[in-house]
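Bit of a strange request maybe. I'm writing a small parser for structure token strings and I need a real example to test against, not something I typed by hand. Could someone generate the tokens for this chain?
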Amino acid sequence: MPAFNLSSISEHFKKISFLQISIAIVYLWFGALKFFNDVSPAEELAKETITSLTFGLIPPNISIFMLAVLEVGIGIFLLFDLFRKQTIIVTLLHMVCTFSSLLLLNEASFTYSPFAPTLLGQYVIKNLIIIAALISLYQNTKKAERTAVNSTSTD
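Reply from user aminoacidic:
Good idea to test on real output. This should exercise your parser:
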């Protein structure tokens, strides 16, 4: 069994970007909040959005638990750099779903649509920053893969 020591942990975190670590922390934090009733400020918005997207087939208490597992899972996979490309794709799909609340729950997202978002609307709209960061991480991953392929083919 491999031993974990401080230097191996330090080496791991030197290999991944601060941007990736930051997104992982946000996902871990916000996902963990959803495991506890009425702790996450986005809990009701998430439940209502998932209920709308699934036509009520998934009960709200189950959907929020599934979302918490998804978000914490994304955070863990990003933090430990597991299946980076696949994790980024899943995270981007999650981000697309978060934006559906702006359309499905317009009254909860805007005071004057589409110019004056509520606090919950701002919570969703700020995800544009995470989307841009994820696209950047994905592009860097693809560049690193091409570089690795090129360096092994010239050897």
